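[INFO] parsing input record for Alpha-glucosidase
[DEBUG] input buffer:
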Amino acid sequence: MSQQYSADSAPKSALVTVADRRDWWRDAVIYQVYPRSFADSNGDGMGDLEGVRSRLPYLRDLGVDAVWLSPFYASPQADAGYDVADYRAVDPMFGNLLDADALIRDAHELGLRIIVDLVPNHSSDQHEWFKRALAEGPGSPTRERYHFRAGQGENGELPPNDWESIFGGPAWTRVTEPDGTPGEWYLHLFAPEQPDFDWDHPAVGDEFRSVLRFWLDMGVDGFRIDVAHGLVKAEGLPDLGSHEQLKLLGNDVMPFFDQDGVHEIYRQWRLVLDEYSGDRIFVAEAWTPTIERTANYVRPDELHQAFNFQYLSTHWDAEELRACIDRTLDAMRPVGAPATWVLSNHDVTRHATRFANPAGLGTQIRLAGDRELGLRRARAATLLMLALPGSAYLYQGEELGLPDVVDLPDEVRQDPAYFRGAGQDGFRDGCRVPIPWDREGSSYGFGGGGSWLPQPAGWGELSVEAQTGAAGSTLELYRAALAARSEQADLGAGDRVEWLKAPEGVLAFRRGAFVCTANTGGEAATVRAYGRVLLASGEVTVTDDGEAKVPADATVWWIAD
Ligand code: NOJ
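[DEBUG] output buffer:
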């Protein structure tokens, strides 16, 4: 059924014809486009909005429901666009507002929804507000929109507290005052070019509600909220009292992360969103110590979804996966939010490379590992993920089985964390290399020119062109999985799975007529044949006596005959 959005709260540009299925997001497959690296329409080596628009039919044919675009706003690009100088403008390197409008319209015509990234924890240091705050000096009202503080020590030469930047080094930078003297410090949980807003100041909230409306009026279907757990800082900015901050991250509530006060902000945002027609959504990037605390972000009057980073960090291990799946579903059920599942994004080593290496190396890996093993496991892990109830996130290029590029020369790196030393995220460029569309040609069809990060030799063999129609290719596996997920088995529906008895190392669960068996072990396993094989990530052999041999690191989807 296709229906137009009503025009009462949206201007003409938001008149769209996406299939208006209520609660579409509960089981949606959402594809992350990293605009720099997806498709380059003007041959300058940098992806752009027009490039994305030209490839929308590919995404429709892949079978995803929505596209989440990483930031394309005006930005000096100190953190690849997560440093926004103007929240209402498109950076010229990506195009302009007309291109954004055309992209949203075309997507809707193809039945795809568009989710944009909102970066409310910090702005760029080139944002008008911050430039004014610097120029107007200590005590000026414009400084109150950020966290400016006097330093400690005799002459204020020490940072105001012991917080560290996620990208390494202190979370504070001292400014030179307009009169040329060393002055106050400002807080930046990320790079110095990303000053944190002070969300206690009412102008900050007003501004972001207005930014929400700007993009809702443009017709977007939702927002991914960057650092959603970081907006509110503990009263008085207390010391952490530990020099092991990076180890604590994600394991503990920190004075700058996951403070209870953030939830009031999202309740207000929800009111804004709900004024608009069309079932639009928020998804939180919220790193919290536990999935139960993540569930707080998706209570009925707050956000719709939150990324499940616990799942992303889980190893390819049946017991660990089962525990994480159970805990996730149990945490989301009481708040009525769908579980989400994700294996890769622009901040972590691609799962084909994570699984190519021994477990326990974390999500930032600089080793190629055993690529064949990694790809086998990645394909199996994807089929497992897509069989779970809830919504799944894909990161561009994973449908091609792309590995991380682990040997980028240091001189081409752009990740700010890399330059700030021991940050946890120093190697994110490896998952951001522009994707290959064609077997050959300049930048393998990414654009007419070069590519802002060099693509490795052999990239063409992994291209969309090389894999399209190729039996057994990863791209065809994704296409078949997405088609089967929605057309034949309605796999995203519901909020539970029924576990079945299975040999060690194997996960087996039923969802009505559908059964998924995933063999995470290093050896082939024998399981019951639960009907007809709907799809498999490896070669399955079904015997006459109702059993099936599932190879190591493979997932099989079964449907009752
Ligand atoms: C999370 C984003 O995913 C990451 O790329 C960025 O560096 C930080 N937030 C800071 O905005």
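[INFO] The chain has two domains: 24-121+201-482, 128-187.
[INFO] shutting down worker
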